[in-house]
Amino acid sequence: MTFANDLVTVHFLACTSLRNMKWFQDDHSELKLGVKSDKCAIHPWTTHSIWSEVCQSEILQKTFYHVIAKKYPPSEKYRRSFLKELMNQVESSGEVCAEEIFTLYVDLLQFCEEKTSYKSYFLPMMEIYVTLKESTNMLSNGTTGLVTWTGSMVLSEWCLTNRKLFDKKHILELGSGCGLLGLVLSKSFEMKSFTFTDVHPDVLEQLRANVHLNGLCQGKHSVKYFNWQERTPDEEKPDIILAADVVFDPLIVPDLARTIANFLCNNTSAVAFIASTIRNESTYQMFLSQLDSNKLNYFEQEQSKSSEVFFFDRKWDVRILKISMS
């Protein structure tokens, strides 16, 4: 499989927001001008025209009938929205929508919305997918840890472009949530170990399920309960501490900063990389102040557009800090 040829698959399996979705890789200005072409911009290796019945059938094969989608399907809500957008694209082009698409859409109207579903994220460098079971609601059972957040995607991309920092290292993640960051790194790098941690029992249960779903060996990868208000275990001496989107509540910021400091004291050569989506500048500044109070050095890391792997709304300001002992 190649990234460009199966762009529609990548978007569908990851439940990419339809407003951020690209049906074809290139500009294809002739399509924007309404000019008919014998070349399909979605399936450039074929001879059929775009949005034709053959094209529609190929899209269904690459999405609904894809081997991953059949085993780990996106949410029913997303599949309905995808089909509706597909019908709009076909009808806007002047083509006739295939009966199979209407049938699939009507069938999905019969279902009640489920509480959990799957998202599968493609890693083009490895040509593999990471599949996560996630909640269909941002807030579920009193926690936001059952869905993947922007910071995890941004930090994952940054780590992928800085792989030399992570090879042959013991890594611990704070607030792992669904586990995207750790799963991406575990499938991409040769690490000595990776420890996922979180505090909410439902998050830990789902996290263990996602680690198992992606076939990671238990000896090298572990999932542990860890409360930042409790004593940092002396036996945990990771080389690298990671966290994404954990700086959001002023009440937990002091415990987070103290926890990072304690891990760095356990191993003075260790470093932490923390990604924060800036939703409240004052909360982020409070975090920096707490790092100062714990006598920690921190430097914002550069990010490159060339490192982009995932498809999401990039309007958010996401900052990555490297933190070390003074």
Write the layout of secondary structure elements.
Layout: H1 7-13, H2 29-32, H3 53-62, H4 67-71, H5 76-92, H6 99-109, E1 116-123, E2 128-135, H7 150-160, E3 170-174, H8 180-188, E4 193-198, H9 201-213, E5 221-225, E6 240-244, H10 253-266, E7 271-277, H11 281-293, E8 296-300, E9 318-325
Parallel strand pairs: 3-4, 3-6, 4-5, 6-7
Antiparallel strand pairs: 1-2, 7-9, 8-9
Structural class: alpha/beta
What is the CATH fold-level name of the largest domain? Rossmann fold
Kindly report the spatial arrangement of strands forming the biggest sheet.
Answer: 5-4-3-6-7-9-8
What is the N-to-C succession of helices and strands? Answer: HHHHHHEEHEHEHEEHEHEE
In helices, the fraction of residues equals 25-40%
Keywords: Methyltransferase, S-adenosyl-L-methionine, Transferase
Protein name: FAM86 N-terminal domain-containing protein
Pfam family, one: Methyltransf_16
InterPro entries: FAM86_N, Methyltransf_16, SAM-dependent_MTases_sf
